[in-house]
Amino acid sequence: MRVVKPARLSLLMRxxxxxxxxxxxxxxxxxxxxxxxxxxxTEQALWQLAAExxxxxxxxxxxxxxxxxxxxxxxxTAHQADKTACAVRxxxxxxxxxxLVFGDRYWLDGHATAxxxxxxxxxxxxxxxxxxxxxxxxLGIGSAPRRINGMDVVPLPxxxxxxxxxxxxxxxxPPAGFDAIPPDxxxxxxxxxxxxxxxxxxxxxxxxxxxxDLRFFNAAPEDQWWSERREVPARAxxxxxxxxxxxxxxxxxxxxxxxxxxxxxxxxxxLEEIDLRLTTVWFFPHxxxxxxxxxxxxxxxxxxxxxxxxxxxxxxxxxxxxDKGHYDNVLRRRVHTREGALHALxxxxxxxxxxxxxxxxAALPDxxxxxxxxxxxxxxxxxxxxHRATLxxxxxxxxxxxxxxxxxxxxxxxxxxxxxxEWLERERAQGEALLARGRAELLADADxxxxxxxxxxxLDAVAQARQxxxxxxxxxxxxxxxxxxxxxxxAMMTAPAGGSAGDPRTPARxxxxxxFSASLDRMxxxxxxxNDRPSGLAPHRAQRTRRRVAARYQRDRDFSxxxxxxxxxxxxxxxxxxxxxxxxxxxxxxxxxxDDCDFTQAVLARASMKRGSLxxxxxxxxxxxxxxxxxxxxxxxxxxxTQLEGAHFLACSFAGAALRRPRMNESxxxxxDFQATSWADVLAVRATFxxxxxxxxxxDGCGWMECAFASLALRRARLTRCAFINTRCAGMDFSHAxxxxxSFSSGTALEAVVFEGAELRHCGMRGVKLDGGRFSHAxxYGxxxxxxxxxxxxxxxxxxxxxxxxxxxxxxASLRGANxxxxxxxxxxxxxxxxxEANLFRADLGQALLDDTTAMHGAYTAGAKLWPxxxxxxPDATQ
Length: 879
Prior knowledge:
Strand content: 15-25%
Radius of gyration: 38 Å
Domain DUF2169: 20-295
Region (Disordered): 161-183
Distance between the termini: 18 Å
InterPro entries: 5peptide_repeat (IPR001646), DUF2169 (IPR018683), Pentapeptide-BTB/POZ_domain (IPR051082)
Protein name: DUF2169 domain-containing protein
Pfam families: DUF2169 (PF09937), Pentapeptide (PF00805), Pentapeptide_4 (PF13599)
Number of strands: 40
């Protein structure tokens, strides 16, 4: 279930069963100011206040039979001459209740002492009669003596009812208060019912018993209930006395608001509205706040509301009524994968704008008011003044040359942010279209073409060039030489006349070469595969390059920083060479032997290699992006932080290689050998692995997202903290593998997977398709297979103690001899399944589907939980 809600409402939901019907209880919570024109505040403000004033518990999420009001606050003596006691009173919608609040008092010689003066006294259960020996109020003031000024005295409660005053120390007077009664106190627990016998277990579990009084969910004392009404009176008048530090009486009307809530189901169909009624108003007078709670219930198919896809609350003015079509469109926009976050900022779609437009939290933080922004603006103003002075000194009018200052409008309101972003997106698109049209017109201009002819510029090539692409064959070594030449020229131009040396005490500033070459090298390494493909070398240049490479190899084997872009090194034996920082972009390496070479930070983007060898090569922080390797031996190679984006490996051997944090987006591996490889911190996105072997491989902290796996052998592999997300896995063999703390997301399919003899510890596979899988003799310890489908799967003799199989589908599966001790199999489907000789000791089979087609011969079911039985499907749900 997904909750789609505005920022100013909170939503509680709780499925429950009452009188044999499964319902989803919903509570929509809002907090308003106690003003003549109430303002709706944010959910964060609501729960912060609840934590500070109400202990964090506002509601249980199930409809209350009787509407009620509550008050949490303090009594104040600021509005009267007597500072030792005051009367607090709440009058709400025709209900009235008063309490007496006293300063600290004690019993002395059987008489109550005079109350001590006070300014404010909390009106809560801690200051009412009670104590550890009082079940009705264990938090209150009890009869245990306290030692005050050397005397043992018994305190009196600070809060009493004017109708039941405490007259003696042993008086059994009920506790008095306005506050919520905790649900575990006996005055509420008495309504929970007592019919929890076998009949309840077989017919009503997990619902409430038949003799339960639903008034258990009323939290206020009974004299604060509207017992004869279904909801709080509309626009109920209220008066609260002596519970505000500055106002003796607070009065007004409750906000005339109407909450609504809509639900959608996984099965589709029209959006359903849940009938809500205002059942609770909770005042916090000293904070000028009131919380309002609307309750409703929706009939559901599943007892845990698994059939509900979305819940969406909204709030309107009572005279306003948006049709269901409006809310249907809002839900569709807010759950949109790409644009949902933007539409979620439209608060007015679900909340009437009049309810919050005056709220103090309606704007984003003003970042321009921060010191850094203020200093930046002040500096800009000083520079502008200097420019104006310069222009005026030249006799020019500064206003004709300097643009007018833009007034700071401040941050936009949050509700306007979505529209502002959409406007910016439209402006960007229009700007790009205008730029493209202007560029086309400029390139087609006759004068421009005449100039291009004179300047020897190929305008057609310019028109076809990719925007932002760097020139083909970008050569870092050439750029370095250019930077050195520039530095030398700059040094010559700045040298003192007569050749005298500068001040030797002044350190020389590094030139451009020293300052930028490392950054350019890094940029080239990361982006070489995004540039235009370099053209191959001419035949005579290719031969000259081969001769130079052979000569260098004979001399020192050091090719560090060499530029070999587009070089043809086919068939050359260069084993043991150092290619650190070298550029081999687009090089041809067919049949070359590059064993034990060091390619640290080397660029081999778009390189091609057939039937060559890179055994034990160091490919640390190097780039093989969009390279194509076929039949290459890469056993024992080290690929650490290696770029493999878009690379294609066909029939390559990586046996014993180590891969640590490589970038493998959209890489493709076919018929490769990864035996005994080690993988660490790998994140592959949309990569493809086909017909490859990973026997005895070790994976640690690896993730595969939207990848495609087919016919992979991971026999005896070890996977720790690995994740498969929205990945299609067909024909994978995990026989005798060990998986620990690993997960397969619900969007992943493991068709015809093999886990025979494998061990899975604390793994998550919730919602994964495992149809036709083979799990015989697998050990599944503490793992979650809830909502998985095991249709026609083989799970004979599995060890699955204490694993979760809630709502798993074992239709046609074989679980003969399976150990399912303490396994959770609630709501699982066992039609046509074979549970012969399975051990179901203390397994939970509540609401599981077992019928005449389920084979149970020899199964051990002692201690198994078989109740409640699965219920017949509910007809089309109605509210």
